[in-house]
Amino acid sequence: MPSAVAAAPSFELFESCMNQVKHSSKSFAALLLSLMRAAHWDIAAAVRSITGGATTLSTASARLAVESYVCCKMFQGFENESFYISGMLSCLLEPEKHRQDCFAQFKAMLSLDPPELLSLLSESLFGKFSAKKYMKIVHPKMEEAFFGGLEQRRMVASGKHPKTEFYSEFLVLAKAVWMLHRLAFAMEPLPSQFRASRGAEFHPEFMESVGGIPGGVSGGLVSFSVTPGFKIGGFVIKARVCLVSRK
């Protein structure tokens, strides 16, 4: 995340924030995968359920599959000004003021770590967003297998935020996605999110190959999407994808 903020939203700033999302999602996915292994989960079955069975099982592909699962959940609702947490319509009723408010929030939150944000704004949209996404990603069977109980889930459901290493790692990702979202809604035009569909042709102008067949081999097809891409005016942030060879 940039330490110094530009005077106005820009593609470069958005790209920098998206890079932070990618870094955080990789880290959290690696943590989830390590906990799955420690809990003796069937990793192959988990990967197949995410990818539809269209990938070989290696450490790299397993981590990318878990990251795909996490990012799919985290970016659901990104197109809405509150991730559908509230019924606000500020971006339609007062679009210019809403953009200014979003950028002001972005700048104010930038230097604070997630626990600080939650201690200051426990009832904020960020707190509700974090709780909602945690519940979506870490389902009860997963948490029970990892930690032997559902204490963290019960705390989150009651509006509290656990001070555990696992939840803290999740909050790093939650903050990165929330900051990207605040910045997106500060921009005109609003960045347009896109994902590469399974079986789609590989298009290097819109996609970056991060697994499967190397380097975006000509004729490769998308096995699964890892992180979404964005179109911002005439600029593109590429979707990260895993590829398979055309049969």
TrEMBL record:
Domain GIL1/IRKI C-terminal span(s) in chain numbering: 194-241
Q: Name one GO biological process term.
A: response to red or far red light
A Pfam family reported for this protein in Swiss-Prot or TrEMBL: GIL1_IRKI_C
InterPro entries xrefs: GIL1-like, GIL1_IRKI_C
Tell me where on the tree of life, at the top rank, the source sits: Eukaryota
Q: What is this protein called?
A: GIL1/IRKI C-terminal domain-containing protein
Q: Can you name the source organism?
A: Amborella trichopoda
